[in-house]
Design brief:
The protein is built from 16 helices and two strands. The protein is mainly α. It starts with a strand and ends in a 5-residue tail after the last helix.
Length: 418
């Protein structure tokens, strides 16, 4: 294959817009770099003024963007594992998000500087607040909650994410180069390799994300524990990424690519997928509250008491009514899911609610008495997000916008849903 020509079934040659390399995004890369550098520069300045606030703001922003990258990777793996054809035309956009893990790894390094400002278990036991239960639990979990093992686990998490994302994208790109067209034996073997890898490693991903949520969120308050935090973290990740995928697909299509490839049926399917994940997130949020309420263990109940008192109570109601209620009823509309502008507005709303969810999870560990928004929250969010945008678009440029080499690509083009 060369240019945008593909061998057709009758031996002729036809044009396929999916083979056109993406040449746009230059402005996005430039603005991403500018915003990223300025944002992180302001974070560094803020760290000299209020180190603890800067550390928490940076952690919150990092986890927000990590959930989207993780949601992208699991989305790709699930689509490969179940041999789904409808989302194939959206795969390259999803791969662009999933392959940002190397930059996320680099952006995680500053957290090592402020680790003792964020996690209480890094302090010597004698220096901890006079809270017998907290001290006892940290001593009991000392074999797990220590900086050396924390770094080793984080390195293992990123190794898994980077390797799987790299292999899935590499095999997709190699399908473009296969002799005999997408239906050839080599193209089919690469599709099978993606399916096998995804099916075998999806259980591993469940363990990895559970431990990552324990390390990065639960251990902020070691006296608290939740057996459902991992799946709650995943549900939010999957929902946020689906909204991001919708917006990115619309942007790429508006730039003149994916036209005639991604149809209203694909956007309708993304809307239905968001509805599923909104319901899943709401279910796990309710079950987490229900289990802790039924058990009535003071150290666990206190976590919710803090987050449903003072100004944090406003955040809790925003999540109940906005993140779940409004999103759920908006996505019930058939018309909204098949209207690009409406779906884009809903996607932006869901991403905003996801940010509030992450903020509500993390920042009460710093301000248990009530929410205190800070300018470092915004600069951290923009700094990390800008660099991820620049890197993701850069990796996407110069390569075909759709996985034309996949044997099921033609089936994805004709996907239709009502």
């Amino acid at each position: 294959m060369s240019g945008i020509e593909e061998v057709s079934g009758d031996g002729g040659v036809r044009d396929d817009p999916g083979l056109a390399p993406f040449e746009g995004g230059g402005r996005a890369i430039l603005w991403g770099l500018v915003i990223g550098v300025i944002g992180l520069g302001l974070v560094i300045i803020g760290a000299t003024i209020d180190p603890r606030q800067a550390a928490f703001s940076y952690l919150m922003a990092f986890i927000f963007w990590h959930t989207i990258a993780f949601g992208a990777l699991v989305h790709l793996m699930i689509q490969h594992a179940i041999n789904a054809s409808w989302a194939i035309v959206l795969r390259r956009v999803g791969e662009g998000v999933a392959t940002t893990f190397p930059i996320l790894l680099i952006l995680a390094l500053p957290l090592t500087i402020g680790l003792d400002l964020i996690f209480p278990w890094t302090e010597p036991v004698g220096a901890l607040p006079d809270h017998p239960d907290l001290r006892a639990r940290i001593v009991h979990r000392g074999a797990y909650l220590n900086t050396t093992f924390f770094y080793l686990r984080a390195g293992a998490y990123f190794a898994v994410w980077i390797l799987i994302a790299w292999l899935l994208q590499r095999w997709t790109l190699r399908q473009f180069e296969m002799d005999g067209g997408p239906g050839g034996p080599r193209g089919r073997s690469l599709a099978q390799a993606q399916r096998v890898l995804s099916a075998l490693t999806l259980p591993l991903m469940a363990f990895v994300i559970t431990f990552a949520a324990i390390d990065w969120v639960m251990s902020l308050e070691p006296e608290w524990s939740s057996t459902i935090l991992g799946v709650y973290y995943y549900a939010g990740s999957a929902l946020a990424f689906t909204a991001v995928l919708t917006l990115l697909s619309l942007a790429v299509q508006r730039a003149g690519y994916l036209e005639g490839i991604v149809t209203l049926s694909h956007y309708h399917a993304l809307g239905k997928l968001m509805l599923v994940f909104v319901s899943l997130w709401g279910y796990f949020a309710f079950v987490q509250l229900l289990l802790i309420w039924l058990a009535d263990i003071p150290r666990e109940v206190e976590w919710f008491v803090v987050r449903t008192a003072g100004s944090w109570k406003v955040g809790a109601w925003i999540l109940v009514l906005g993140h779940f209620g409004l999103s759920f009823f908006a996505l019930l509309s058939w018309r909204a899911k098949r209207h690009r502008t409406s779906l884009a507005i809903i996607s932006i709303w869901i991403i905003t609610m996801h940010f509030i969810d992450i903020y509500w999870l993390i920042m009460p560990a710093l301000y248990p008495g009530g929410a205190r928004p800070h300018w470092l929250d915004l600069t951290s969010l923009l700094g990390i997000g800008g660099l991820l945008l620049a890197y993701g678009v850069w990796r996407f440029r110069g390569r075909p916008v759709a996985p034309v080499g996949d044997p099921r690509y033609e089936r994805s083009l004709t996907f239709y849903t009502t």
